[in-house]
Amino acid sequence: MTDFPTNERQTLEVARASDVVRARQLGHDLAQAMGFDRGAQTRIGTAISEITRNALRHSGKVGTLSLEPIVRGGRCGLRIVVSDAGCGIANLASVSQGAARSVMSLGAGLPGARRLMDEFEVETHAGQGTTVRMTQWLPPGSASLTGAVAAAATIG
Ligand SMILES: Nc1ncnc2c1ncn2[C@@H]1O[C@H](COP(=O)(O)OP(=O)(O)OP(=O)(O)O)[C@@H](O)[C@H]1O
Ligand SMILES: [Mg+2]
Question: Quick check: CB of 99 below 6 Å from ligand 1?
Answer without folding.
Answer: no
